[in-house]
Amino acid sequence: MNLLSFLSFLILAITLLTMVFGVIAYFLYKAREKKKGAAKITYEEALELEKREHLFFSKE
Amino acid sequence: MVDFIKKIIFIAIMAGGLYLTYFSVNNLERIYIETSSVFIKFGVILIFIFTIFIIIRYLMLMFFSILQTIRRSADEDFYLSKKDIVTIIVPCYNEQDVIVPSLKSSIAQTYPNLEIIVVDDGSSDRTYELAKMFEFDDGHRSLKVLSKVNGGKSRALNFGIQKAKGNLICCVDADSKLDKFAVELLVQHFKNPEIAAVAGSVSVVNTDTFLTKLQALEYIQGLNMVKNGQAFLKLVNIIPGPLGMFRKEALEKVGYYSHDTFAEDCDLTLSLIAEGYKIDFEPDAVAHTEAPEDLLDLLKQRYRWTRGILQAIKKNKKYLWHVRSKPSISFVMWYMLFESVFWPFMQIWGDLFMIYLALSTGTSQLLLFWWIMFTVLDIAGAIYCLLITKEKLSLAAYSTIYRLAFITVINIAKIFATIEEWFNIEMGWGKLERKGRIG
């Protein structure tokens, strides 16, 4: 295998891996934000969402 | 002698870049002639057009930037009117880790007539308490802390501007630290009555990790090549959040910061350009800021910037077609559309097309040449910027990874952000967690 072919293969592999990594990283970021958003809800907002008078929490 | 050698290296790299560009274009032409597939022919034409656009973009920005640097060094007039009162506005929301060094740097400014207004936007931490400790008034200079119910950065800035005594407003981020001459350097641009705003320079303080080094390189290139080039035309398209100065009268004319986009700085700059004002850049007025150290935080920042810029473009889209009546704003809008939408899509599409070519026809060398061409352009741009900023030249070595990995990951996030903006998917502010590195 000559140097040019080797470098071409290397760049091809890195490009492919980076693209896959980029997509995964983006969805990881979205998942983290979703988790954070869910955790930051206040009691009043939860009441409003549930349309109930009281919310009861159970201990696991 | 060392400078001469550096310049020779720079010219050699530029010449190498041009040769490789010729080689890539030649390869594209060969593939176009040899293939019978309509898809490949179409792809080759697209790649060819994109490559031409990118080369023109690089060369124009570098050319304008060089001219701007020459113009700056030839202009020896130093304007410092003591009549101008400058009000620094520091909007803050939960900034207890960074507010102290930030305020200390504002107080340390060399400019004499200074008013500093800290607007606490309903913080739930010790920000208000810490800022309050710095309150003073000595007749010429003062610092006061105002508090309001949380309503977002643009409302906090407008609140501060309306309370300001100054005819020049300097907006800074609470997580940034200013160089002591920053305000003085920004003020001198306002001797030209057409100038409505001046963008400051932003530098990354925490360059101790691989990711932040890449961002530092991005900032140096983005500021010294892109903003300096735009400054030649007095059409800088974004006043950065960490440091920007505005003429209060111009802000009143355009109705201050708006609240309907996530890039209030970009939206305001576009409104000022649409009003016929000029926007300048001062490379020596520096704000030091903390870059995200975590990849997911970086993606969050870029996602928010992209959607904000797209919202600002969408809001001002009528100017895209005002090519004859308002050429400045039309040009700036097309340029922003190119940078934020066309470029990321074309680069990722180009990579995918090259991978397809490599797998279907075995011509994987084209991807190598394409990457080398971009990398050489990046290295040339980086060396030019590092030479004029007198930063370490070793940072240019990161250009090899910059295009191959860093920009690809950022562009993927930009593409997703564009798609989500297109479909109006709800988004939140998502404040970045600060580590307090500016102290």
Features:
heterodimer; A: 60 residues; mainly alpha; 75% helix; B: 439 residues; alpha/beta; Spore Coat Polysaccharide Biosynthesis Protein SpsA, Chain A; 2 domains; nine-stranded mixed β-sheet; 56% helix; globular
Sum this structure up briefly.
The complex is a heterodimer of chains A (60) and B (439). Chain A is mainly α and 60 residues long. Chain A has helices at 3-39, 43-50.
Question: Can you describe this structure?
Answer:
- The complex is a heterodimer of chains A (60) and B (439).
- Chain A is mainly α.
- Chain A has a domain at 21-60.
- In chain A, 75% of the residues lie in helices and 0% in strands.
- Chain A is rod-shaped.
- Chain A starts with a helix and ends in a 10-residue tail after the last helix.
- With 439 residues, chain B is an alpha/beta fold.
- Chain B folds into two domains: 2-74 and 330-422; 86-323, Spore Coat Polysaccharide Biosynthesis Protein SpsA, Chain A (Alpha-Beta Complex).
- Chain B is globular and about 75 Å long.
- In chain B, 48% of the residues are buried.
- Chain A binds chain B through residues 4-5, 7-9, 11-12, 14-16, 18-19, 21-23, 25-26, 28-29, 32-33, 37, and chain B through 295-296, 299-300, 303, 348, 351-352, 354-355, 358, 364-365, 367-368, 371, 404-405, 408-409, 411-413, 416, 428, 430.
